[in-house]
Amino acid sequence: MKTYTGVSNKLLYRMCKKGEIPHIRLGDKDSQKPRIIFRKSTLDKWMWEQERLNYKESDEVD
Q: Which residues lie below 8 Å from residue 41, measured CB to CB, with a gap of 6+?
């Protein structure tokens, strides 16, 4: 996943835990090591939205 997003797996797991990135969690609710999967189409939409938000923010700073 790092190759596609440019984000380390460790950071991706942290973002999932905080609910900051769309994902699908597989396994028991209390599992210490759940399997987490991502839909490419959902990540594409999420990354596009992040890019749009960051662009607006940088526009407002200038």
A: none
